[in-house]
Amino acid sequence: MTRDTKDDDMIYGLTVEERGRLKRGLGELEGTMPPRAVWNRICEQAEAEGLIRTPHDGRRRTWFGITGLAAALLLAAIVVPGLRDATQQPYPVVPDNAEPSNSVPLTALEALMVESRQLENDLRSLPGEPRVIRAGTQATILEIEDRIAAIDYQLNEAEPGLAPDEEEIFWRERVRLMNSLLRLREAQAQRTAY
Amino acid sequence: MSKFADIRIDAAILRRAQQGDKRAHEIIYRAFATPVFSLCLRFTRVPAHAEDLLQETFIEVMRSIGKFRGDAALGSWIRRIAVSKALMFLRSAWSKRSQSLADDWHEHTPGDNASHGVSRHPDDALDLDAALARLPSVSRAVVWLHDVEGFTHKEIAALMGKTESFSKSQLSRAYQRLKPMLEEPDGPIAGRGAAARSF
What we know:
By secondary structure, chain A is mostly helical. Chain A is built from 7 helices and no strands. Chain B has helices at 11-18, 22-44, 47-64, 74-96, 124-133, 137-148, 153-160, 164-183.
């Protein structure tokens, strides 16, 4: 670059000021966003060539595993009194005295998974989205859903796999967000009822 | 200066992309799509061609990212791929028209007068855009690579398969063309709000 700078003074015929002005002007030119469809075309070609793997496939496989585990844990939760009430706490854990003597004690992580599953069921049991939606509420709901999706991505796709304590952090945050989502959707449903 | 240099990608995302993770690739694409597309559009001036080059660039990124060792910044690496694709396109266009690189200087068509909407600036930037668009494609590419992307003449010469002198002469000729609008103290490039200039 030093050599180029020297050459510039010798042969390009622009004053230092003019060159500076030109470079500034060029640097300030705005970029242009490509049409959204280009990414879809890239994906199609990349998938056809086997260059990328779709997270959806792996996710579905992982989700079967997680759903199976959650279903099994849900059965255990049915016989764990007080577990559902624990959702009211910010970081729910299974009370020690809540375990029936003949059941396998749930770890904190498993309890969070069960609770998350229960919250999903609660959400599904709510009536469908109202026709008239407050923009602010809807934006908050979408944001929470995005954050849940981001957590799911970490839980299902993270490689190498998450350490147990990391996994628990993610599940705890998922439960917290699911609680917030449920409260918002319940409020939405109540407003629609009146 | 180059927009590529400002973009940072998390090392974990890069690792996932190297494993073929689609979402990681999408994150990289979203980060670099605009500078790559802008560069391609600057070189080709035709949005459809720039879209094709954008696609080719990111397919190449996906093919080769496993070999990326991080010796240079990811942005520099992607930029080099994009430049290489864009120059390949220009070379192909020249060969189709049986034109040599040197002849390109004399190329000037009525269609050159359009700025193709590359910039949204209403005043001086549009003038500069228009002036750039009217440069022959090789000169425009050299100006962009040298003054915006920071390539040396030696690097430009290697990319174009030409000599350093060729790169220098292209830049010099381009400056001669651009000089009239640079000389005016309150000329189009000097300040925003200046009246549109016709060439």
